[in-house]
Amino acid sequence: MNFDYNEEQQLLADSVRRFIRKDYDFESRRKIVASAEGWSEKIWGTFAEMGLLGLPLSPDYGGFGGGAVDLMSVMELFGEALVVEPYLATVGLGAQFVARAGTAAQKKRILPRVVEGKLKMAFAQTEKDARYNLAHVAATARKAGGGWQLDGGKCAVIGAPIAEMLVVSARSADTGGISLFLVEREAKGMALKPYRTVDELRAADISLKGVTVGADALLGKEGAALALIEEVVDYATALLCAEAVGAIKYANDATLEYMKTRKQFGVPIGMFQALQHRMVDMVISYEQAKSMACLACTKADAASDARERARSISAAKIKIADACRHVSQESVQLHGAMGMTEELKVSHSFRRLTMIAQQFGDADHHLERFAKA
Amino acid sequence: MDLNYSAEELAFRDQIRAWLDANLPDDLRRKVADYERLSKEDLARWHRILARAGWVAPAWPREWGGTGWSVAQRYIFEEECGYVGAPPLIPFGPTMCAAVLLRFGTEAQKKRFLPRIYNGDDFWCQGYSEPGSGSDLASLKTRAVRREDHYVVNGQKTWTTLAHYADWIFCLVRTDPNVEKRQEGISFLLIDMKTPGISVRPLILMDGEHEVNEVFFDDVKVPVENLVHEEGKGWTVAKYLLGHERLTTGRIGASKRELARLKEIASKQMKDGRPLMEEARFRDKVSRVEVELTALEITNLRFLDQLRSGRVPGAEVSMLKIRGTEIQQTLTELMMQAVGPLAQPFRPLGGAGDFDEFAAGLAPRYCNFRKTTIYAGSNEIQRNIISKAILGL
Lengths: 373, 393
Ligand SMILES: Cc1cc2nc3c(=O)[nH]c(=O)nc-3n(C[C@H](O)[C@H](O)[C@H](O)COP(=O)(O)OP(=O)(O)OC[C@H]3O[C@@H](n4cnc5c(N)ncnc54)[C@H](O)[C@@H]3O)c2cc1C
Fold this sequence. Notes:
The structure holds two protein chains of two kinds.
Chain A: H1 7-23, H2 26-34, H3 41-49, H4 68-81, H5 87-101, H6 104-115, E1 121-124, E2 140-144, E3 147-158, E4 165-172, E5 178-184, E6 190-197, E7 202-213, E8 218-219, H7 226-261, E9 263-264, E10 267-268, H8 273-302, H9 306-335, H10 345-358, H11 363-372
Helix pairs in contact in A: 1-4, 4-7, 5-6, 5-7, 7-8, 7-9, 7-10, 8-9, 9-10, 9-11
Chain B: H1 7-23, H2 26-33, H3 40-53, H4 71-84, H5 92-104, H6 107-119, E1 124-127, E2 143-147, E3 150-157, E4 168-174, E5 186-192, E6 198-204, E7 210-223, E8 227-228, H7 234-243, H8 252-268, E9 270-271, E10 274-275, H9 280-308, H10 316-339, E11 345-348, H11 357-360, H12 362-368, H13 379-389
Parallel strand pairs in B: 1-4
Antiparallel strand pairs in B: 2-3, 3-7, 4-5, 5-8, 6-7, 9-10
The complex binds flavin-adenine dinucleotide (FAD).
Flavin-adenine dinucleotide sits between chains B (125-129, 134-135, 159-161, 212, 371, 374-375, 378, 380-381, 384) and A (262, 264-265, 269, 272, 274-275, 333-334, 336-337, 340).
């Protein structure tokens, strides 16, 4: 047993921490969020330089061949800084599909560009009425010409307005199964309605009307993508758990600091026992969230089978969702009215944690999956 | 024991219902139902409709426009307004400032302010909190110095709800900094927001909305006749107002409406091809909040019954505030959870969004409702009140 990061992981964490201190304080983030694009090309370039974009990808394509555990510290630090760039969408989802199911040609075409920071990706999966059910895909894929024609609608696709390439799920007319396709964002027939999310990411609803793609756009086997989708979403969920741990850490640190400095009735409010116990419970939530993120990431890397992986990652997401709610709500409450303001970072970690609690399935969804898996 | 309203009370309720049905304009009803922000004019319009009916201030003495209703009738009226989804009557004027004037004001002050409050001519806001004084209100520092026939006010108030709409602000100010008990140097002043030296700066809350403000006072001259009660007796006034808190703090009526709304949303949202409301896990949560609400309603009626037999409500109101706000927050949270991924959108970029705008409004609303356990005496402070006042701890 060993819960420590190894030396390489430590070094990586240190360099990410330095970068965030220098280039991603709350003020810098505020500017990025307020910009028209909602992300920073410069920051993305730095990710590439630091090797973060290739971290989990094979050295064959310029990556470092790391696992979810290697990404944990990065995700935690991104969570703490509330990074808005589409790292999870690109590295945790889009590129993972290619890395796991792509042909040699597809990998060669896409992965080096991801590693170099020239290609950002997003996963277009959720549909209206799908909720968190990954098997609910109504968009269709029909053979047409030498390739495919895609029709349907997707919603809440995080990172889509920023991505150059989307991985789109659609149900094959022939087999009835779900397939995945690589689609350029600028593809004809694909229309994006972009928006800002509650936690200040960029996302879009997408309509696909007679979008034609070539035969080489099919990712993996036709009609057989559901297991792969489950696997990659589990992987991304594990990373999201680590991100949550970082955002929880921020909310706790900020609240603890506030309790020591905010004075009412002549004393720091941290002197009130009623509040001390609340803070203690928040710290317990953090520790348990951290433990479950460790579980999720190790199982994303090395579960003995899909069932064990699903159970562990759902278990983690249940605890993480609870911790997100608990800590976000308490962090605002203990800040009093200050915690309600746009101006304070704690209201932003509140929103991020609120959305993470639901992303890839809320606690209810994972409770059901945990019992069924 | 009988948990039901009397026949007369039920008849009264039906009368109120029918009136609301006939008099609440459709556009206002829709705005409230869609959780749209109400403009000053929206609020004023509803105020005027109530004023015409003679129902702005049921609790006031009849000579000033009160209705002479019993406490039960007043309760029924407010809960019905909440249930039907009428715009709120902003309490700073008709409920708070008026209560103070009726108890401590001079005849001249009552004549000057009450009719204008009744008719909605003046919009009021509440200037209590300061950057350094939230829960610990008595530490407030905004200074008022007497100069002949006026006070000169300097300092800052904050979190002032709708100060950007307001014509007047009632403030707690420090008139004497050299007292042993800091509660003793505080006075209650009425200040015209148009007075030179007052500036209002918006504070944006995390739902992106402007509802609270900072209010700055820079050598603001306030005529001495705007002092309510005696100089240095402001704390008595503030405490009276706290004790005057109404038995409608639980907001049962509004929460009943929200509960119905939650059920409607959960019936439309699909999960695995079936309405979410049919899924036991989610339905249990809806049932639980309904049971909570029932328990609070009956508790509320019990307190009301005690009040009817002459007992003054004390810390009971704190209980209603604690549970009532927790229920409101649970309802907003369940609504957001009900729509799942559709709760993510916030603001469309470039052109109209395609997303379900109602669903998209639910997460910001959830964010906004975190305020309910903070304002009007945070729930921690309410618990302190109960432990001191009822439990003697
Ligand atoms: C949306 C909104 C609207 C508002 N509108 C108005 C308005 O119109 N006019 C106005 O005057 N004010 C208004 N307020 C201010 C409100 O009254 C204060 O926020 C409230 O009194 C709490 O003060 P604070 O925010 O400074 O928190 P603090 O007093 O700093 O408290 C911080 C935390 O410590 C807790 N705490 C403090 N003391 C104790 C204690 N002794 N024991 C245990 N816990 C304690 C609090 O409960 C809170 O959780 C508004 C606030 C909000 C959020």
